[in-house]
Specification:
Structural class: alpha/beta
Low-confidence stretches: none
Shape: elongated
Mean pLDDT: 85
Radius of gyration: 25 Å
Distance between the termini: 27 Å
Helix content: 40-55%
Order of helices and strands: HHHEEEHHEEEEEHEHEH
CATH architecture of the largest domain: 3-Layer(aba) Sandwich
């Protein structure tokens, strides 16, 4: 909780010290009111003010935006649904790039994007994905459902978003079929390969505009057990790429309000500050 954090205690004691210094200084010049200024009710007010100042300084903001040192690029954190804001978007997918709502997880960003932004119609999306992957080698697999073409994990497909922006589907999950059984797996190298491919696609497709993304690897695969770990991974990969050539002007990471604990959110600024410096 916020009241147990180290930062909160530091801000509280600092505020308390400043307030009490002001009171002592005032009582020195206003000797007739010195006793009143040192009364218990004034002390209670000082405590309340210090608590409020510390809470304001340490409570997670609705938006956090930091510049990557040595570049003009920025990383920002938004505590809301990624689909609440239009723009270029990167979405996780499987190596089959399935878009059938009966196959993909209902709570996934891809499923929600198809329902909210495409009115559950995927014809144009599928055509755009196929065109983007036309030059990528794929394996024809005997599947029990969905598309039969399996692409290498790490492959990124580009597609058009209704508002004139671009979308990117990243194959970070591998679906395997063995003896009629379907298994799903994901590993950190899968995500790393997809992210590096994503940067290259973004550089040529979105004209240095901001890119929206959510934490990766926190779904069925559980590559990252905490949202914080995935956010740090994305930030680190973006900073490393910016040191070579920035893929976009800003990486916007959208985190659900329920997906990050208060204790983690309190330290997010410090961790990101260390990464971007």
């Amino acid at each position: 909780m916020i009241f147990l954090s180290r930062r909160f205690i530091i801000y509280f004691t600092s505020s308390l010290g400043v307030c009490w210094l002001l009171i002592e200084s005032t009582s020195f010049f206003l000797k007739d009111h010195a006793e009143c200024l040192r009364s218990s009710w004034v002390f209670i007010i000082v405590i309340m003010i210090s608590l409020m100042l510390a809470a304001v300084k340490t409570y997670p903001k609705r938006k956090l935006r930091l510049r990557v040192a040595g570049t003009d690029a920025r990383i920002s954190i938004h505590y809301r649904d990624i689909l609440s804001e239009t723009g270029h978007i990167a979405i996780a997918s499987s190596n089959f790039f399935n878009t059938d709502l009966d196959i993909i997880a209902p709570k996934s960003v891809l499923s929600q994007f198809i329902v909210k932004c495409l009115n559950s119609k995927t014809n144009a999306l599928d055509a755009s994905i196929s065109q983007s992957l036309a030059g990528v080698s794929a394996t024809n697999v005997a599947v029990t459902r969905g598309k039969p073409l399996s692409y290498p994990v790490g492959t990124v497909a580009c597609f058009d978003v209704p508002d004139g922006k671009k979308g990117f589907l990243m194959a970070i999950t591998q679906v395997n079929y063995n003896g009629g059984q379907e298994t799903v797996e994901s590993q950190l190298p899968f995500i790393q390969t997809a992210i590096r491919e994503l940067w290259q696609k973004v550089k040529t497709e979105i004209n240095d505009e901001p890119l929206n993304i959510t934490p990766l690897g926190s779904g069925v695969s559980r590559v990252f057990h905490k949202t914080m770990d995935s956010v740090m991974f994305l930030a680190s990969e973006f900073v490393k790429e910016c040191k070579r050539k920035r893929p976009c002007s800003e990486l916007r990471i959208f985190i659900g309000e329920k997906d990050l604990r208060m204790a983690d959110a309190v330290y997010l600024r410090e961790l990101l500050s260390a990464i971007v410096s």
